[in-house]
Amino acid sequence: MRKITSFPKSIIAMLLVFITFGSCKKSQEENQPVPVRTTASISFNNGIPELNKLDFYVNGTKKASLTDALNSTYNEIATGKIEVKVINPISGAMVATTTLEILARDYSIFLCGNPIDPILVFSEDNLNAPGTDNGKIRFVNLSPAVKNLSINEVGKQALFSNRPYKTSTSFENIPAANEISFNLKETGSDAVITTLEKTKIEKGKIYTLIATGERIENGSNANVKLLVLVNK
Questions:
Q1: If DSSP codes are grouped into helix, strand and coil, which group holds residue 60?
Q2: For residues 41 and 22, what is the distance between their CA atoms, to the nearest angstrom?
Q3: Which backbone phi and psi does 199 adopt, to 5 degrees?
Q4: In terms of Cα–Cα distance, which of 172, 39, 169, 171 is closest to 106?
C-alpha cells in the first residue's frame, strides 16, 4: 500500500508564495528593456607593413599606436562625423587623412596603397559570434592593381572570389582548425601569388585576411603578402 505524505497548510502557503514570487521575477526579467547602443567602435589597421610606426587620431585624440603591429583592438568612438588622421610618430608628418560619418556600429579603418601616398578605407563589421565549433573570417583586398583577387584553402575551391581593390567580404563561418593554409590568386588565374601557411583558426574567434603590397602587371609580385588579423 503506497503511503501518502501530507504537509502542513503553512508550508503549502509558503511554497505558493515562493512560486508566485519566482514567476513575477522571471516575468520582470523578460520585460527588461534591451540597452540602446549609443557609441561606435573602430579597429585601426595597417595594410602597409613597411610603415611600421603609426598613430591613429580621431577628431584630434589619439586612439591607437601601431608599432610593428597590424591592428588595434576596437576603440569606443562617439557617433557622427569624424576626422581620422594617421601620423608618423617619429617625424610628426601626416601619413593619411579622411572624414566619414559613423553610426552606433562596429567598423574597421585600413591604411593601404602606395607607401608614398597612402589612403584610408573603412568597412562596417558584423561581429556576431561564430556558429558552434566555428571561427569567422573575411577577406579585405588592400593590394593595388587592376585585377581582382580570390582566396582558397589549399586544395579546395575558392573561399572568397573576385574581390576588387579596397573592398571587403562579409565575415563567414569557418570550421576551427589547428592549421589551415590559404592561397592568394588573381581571379581567373591558377597561379598562386603567395600562400599564408599553417594558420590556426580557433572556435569563437573572428579573423580578417588582408592582401597587401602593390602588384606589378607581368612582373614580380614578391612584395605581395597575405596576412591574418584577429578582430576579437
A1: coil
A2: 38
A3: -90, 130
A4: 39
The three cell numbers locating residue 12? 503549502
Residue 179, helix vs strand vs coil: strand
- Give the full edge-to-edge strand order of the sheet including 53-58: 61-67, 53-58, 80-87, 94-102
pLDDT tens track for 143-202: 998 799 999 999 888 899 999 999 999 999 999 999 999 999 999 888 899 999 999 999
Residue 126 CB contacts under 8 Å (≥ 6 apart), including other chains: 106, 170, 171
Q: Cell numbers of 99, please?
A: 572624414
- Which CATH architecture does the domain made up of 36-125 adopt? Sandwich (2.60)
Say whether domain 130-232 belongs to CATH 1.10.260.40: no
For residue range 116-160, what is the model confidence (pLDDT) as tens digits?
999 999 999 999 999 999 999 999 999 998 799 999 999 888 899
User: Maximum CA pair distance of the chain?
Assistant: 94
